[in-house]
Structure formats: C-alpha cells, structure tokens
Amino acid sequence: MSVGVIGLGYVGLPLAVAFAEAGEQVVGVDLDEAKVSAVEAGTSYIEDIPSERLRTALPLIEVSTRYAPLARTDAVLICVPTPLSPNREPDLGPLLGAGRALGLVLQRGQLVVLESTTYPGTTREQLVPLLEQGGLRVGDGLNVAFSPERVDPGRTDYTLRNTPKVIGGLTPECAARAAELYGRVCDDIVHVSTPEAAEMTKLLENIFRSVNIALVNELAMLADRMGIDIWEVVDAASTKPYGFMRFEPGPGMGGHCLPVDPFYLTWRAREFHFATEFIELAGKINQQMPHHCVERIERALNDASKPVRGSWIAILGVSYKGGVGDTRESPALRIMEELAKQGARLSYHDPYVDALPELGLQSRPLDEAVADADAVVLVTAHPGIDHLALAREAPLFVDLRGATRGLLVENLVRL
To answer: Residues 174, 186, 257, 293: which is the catalytic one?
Structure first.
C-alpha cells in the first residue's frame, strides 16, 4: 500500500514515518519548501521524530510541494493546520486549499482521511464537495473518513501505536477502508457512526481539558486572594480515589489544540442558535491567566521594593509545554509582551527555542540568563533543569508551574 500525507508538521511527519516504518511507500506533500528540503536531507524539525529515525525511514518516503504524486497513492491523509482567524473564528483556508488541490488529482478507489481538528460537519459539507469536483462520488469510486489526530507532543508513554484511533466514515465501506489503513500503525481502532461523531469526539476531548483547566485556574486566582496555597489544595484533593481527576493551574494554555479547538464548536453552535456558555467562559478565564501572572510578578517585585520598570526579569521556558519547542499560543509570549510594555528588561532561557524574533530576544545560557536577574520567573518547566536549586539561589523566584512545591524559602512566590 502507498500512503499520501498532506502537511508535514507535528501530525503529518510522525504519520509519514510510522507508515514508512510499517513498510508502506509514503508520499509527503507540504507547501513549505524548507520542510520538504529538511525531510529530504533527513533532518527532523519535530521533537518526537529524531533525525536518525527519519533517516532510517527515508528510503520509503518521497516528499514534494506538488500534489500530482498523490495520484499514485492508495490513501491520502490530510493533516493541515486549522487555526483561528484574528476574530477567533475557524480559518479553514489551508484545509479548503488542500481539498481543492487534492480533488484535481484523485483517482478511482482512493481513500481520503481528514485528521485536522475541525467542527462537526466539515468533512461532509466542506471537504467532500471539493474532492468530488473531478467526477468521483463517495460510495462510487471515492472513500472518505474523519479520524482525529491525538498527538501529545513530547509524550512517550502514549504514541500513535498505542493510542486508540477513532474513525468515522461516510459509509460503512469508507470506515472499513480507513480501519484497514490505520490498523497497520495503530493497535486499537474505535469506530463511530459518522464523521460528525468523530469530529465532535476530538472537540470533546480538548474542551474537557479546557474547561477543567479553567476551573482550577479560576480557583488559583481565588486562592491567591484568600491566602491559600492552591497546590496544597490540588495535592490533597488528588488523594480521593474516585470522582476526581487532577488538573493543575498554570499561566494559561498554549499549543495548536487547547486554545483553538473549543472555539470551533462555539462558532458552529451559533449556527444552531445555541450558546455554549461553559466553553466560552472557560476560554475567557484561560485567556486571562497570563494577565493574572503578570500581576503576580508585579506584586512579588513590589514586595521586594522593586518596580517592574527597569528590573531584569529572567523567564524560564517560553514554549507552551515542557519538552517541546512549539511556541504557538504560548502564554509565555503574552507575559513577556506585557512585562516589556511596562518597562521590564527581559532575558530568557529555553533549550528548545533558540530565538523569539517578535521580541528581539535569543535564548541565553541558563547561568547567564539568571545571573543578574531581579526576578526569575518559571513559566514552562523543561526537563533537565534544577528549578529547586534556582529557587534557592535567586533573589526572587516566581513559580507559575508548581515545580517548587514543598520548598520553603522566603524569596519564593508561587502562582
């Protein structure tokens, strides 16, 4: 079998490598020439795919910026970004562009699976008409399904192989074809009745996290005003053996899923004259967290008799989560932008992010970044950094991630 993959990012490249490792011929397509050149050279830009692993799989991977080679494949997986517009509405531009281009080269008997997260109805109402523009029809020469990506960058305990794969086909034959395809790289297939059910499944997964993160973040802000240690409360509540799932407060949500996906459903819900108040409130609270963190830093400096303006503030970690270099929607950027507006002098250390051009900053060695800092602020806890030692040595250490729980020193302030 030959498999095409459109979009060679955090979702597409691991899929391409997985199918190649399973012995399948892979055609990868991406409009970004830099990505195509990197893959051809065996240089990975995705943390979850070491370059050595990519090079081993490379003999079975062909990459291109053109869609024409996809005509030779048996199945095509669409893994393009589905971001939000500046007005926080779904931006299906990359998806619709991929659908149009793919529709021009599709051949009878091919399977197309959309993996990009989107609102219920997208596969049937938006993608299928584009795929059928060449004359093929679903159920008559064309098979289409939706199977949401479930990638958690940087995670090693749950991978593509052992994470159950949800599949919703437009017809039973579509579902069967998709299941047969993914069975080559996934151990467990979960069937749902329609693409809409599969699309909603992915949104529920991420909205569940968004709402619960918002809940604990709101409680963190309240606990701060009440003089209660929210981390002590979370630790205690987590001892309950049933009916409670641990979520931790933090500076806000980042990445390509949690800050974006819930708004796909709130937008779609408005077409059905339905207000998704829980979801929208959660989004509002999580978007407020960087501002709360800036206020926490301001108060901590004030208690040390120092203003924000003119103070050196060292930021530890600027990616959206530990162990990865992805800065999309990272709350660290919003925190740094606000501190800069208030006149703070900033430095940062992040072993996964070399530079932040938008802020005119480059990552500095850890010792250099914190050497003369008036305050060291832990925003993203990367592995391999001794945050406890830094908290003991810094004149002021602000922990927004709870990495210093249990440490009692006067210069330490936690979220």
So the answer is: 257
